[in-house]
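Lecture 7 notes: from sequence to structure.
We start with the chain below.
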Amino acid sequence: MSPAVIFNIHLALGYVPWLLCFAAYVWPRLRSMEPMEAQRAIATLHSFRFFGLVFLIPGVVGPDLAPGFASFAAYGDFATGLLAMLALLLAARPAIFWPLVVAFNVVGVVDLAGDYYHGVVLDLPGHAGQLGATYAIPILYVPLLMITHVAAFYLLARARRRQLAAA
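Predicted structure tokens for the same chain:
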């Protein structure tokens, strides 16, 4: 099997255990929480996305990792992480917290979708070895991030529907 095929299998299967775990353990808990607490839990996970800057460190990634992929991934993760941290820091101010929750989720989804796009256009599977130590990020971490973004948007919509129904 070629490295590109293995990488693509890893990408696809990376979602399976996270979806199983999320459905069994995380989703029931998030749904039962108050909306702000559920979003704070999701923001806590995403606050670690500053780590995406590792894509810019020579020696951690190979010298032939496409700069178009590395910089987009790095700065998108960094921006998402900072927005998530700001949301956590300002949770006591709902008028600021909620727009930051929306912002970090929108920026985060755009980042991940852009990473997938750049990965296809720049043939990341064909150069998977250039990911070096960061190989685990798209395989293990990105699926969880995408799943929690979807959950965050669902919870935001559910909270909005409840507000409208109460009004």
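Points to note: The mean pLDDT is 96. Residues 136-166 form the longest helix (31 residues).
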